[in-house]
Amino acid sequence: MATKISLVQGDITDQHVDAIVNAANSSLLGGGGVDGAIHRRGGPEILEACRKLRASHYGWGLPVGKAVATPAGRLGVRWVIHTVGPLWSASEDRSAQLASCYSESLRVADELGAESVAFPAVSTGVYGWPMDDGARIALETVQAADTAVADVRFVLFDDTAYAAFDRLL
Ligand code: AR6
């Protein structure tokens, strides 16, 4: 099935979709940016589920490029899919890890039966990935993905991020 890809400027916690993707860190225990917004607005149920996942499956944390789902607490969506982007590095090419965040999140979405998924621009905030390159990897990976998700929405926080995605789509 063809996946419809769209762009929205705004806050990912405002989206009405089946699943939103969190730009988390390996601890799964919260942070700033998207992660902070999701936990703040979603409430303690998400953190509780993350703690359980750490205890049951990810004692050393969720590896970079992987994705895992929890309930969404008060967010008004069905699931949060947490993925861990790579830190930007000028000396090492970590593009495959960033691409993996998108493909693994879609794989988890397929397992859940999610039909609509909202992504932030993973790694382009605290983790320092240049926006244009982050947008290219995001769009190329989703366009190439073999997924049953019908609606993929990129939720871009500011004008620069929206423009970077818009130029490429
Ligand atoms: N909705 C949509 N996009 C947002 C929002 C929001 N509410 N808030 C920020 N952005 P970041 P990362 C944009 O830093 O780079 C956390 O502390 C932001 O402008 O959220 O993957 C985690 O715990 C940027 O373009 O994620 C990790 O430690 C993009 O979302 C670390 O940050 C991603 O920025 C992960 O860093």
Name the overall outline: globular
Rounded to an integer in angstroms, the radius of gyration calculated over CA atoms is 14 Å
What binds here, in terms of ligands, is: ligand AR6
What is the CA–CA distance across the termini?
Answer: 19 Å
SS elements, strand count: 6
Instruction: Tell me about the largest β-sheet.
Output: 6 strands, mixed
Q: State mean pLDDT (0 to 100 scale).
A: 98
Short recap of the structure:
With 169 residues, the chain is an alpha/beta fold.
List keywords for this structure.
169 residues; alpha/beta; six-stranded mixed beta sheet; 5 helices; 38% helix; globular; binds ligand AR6
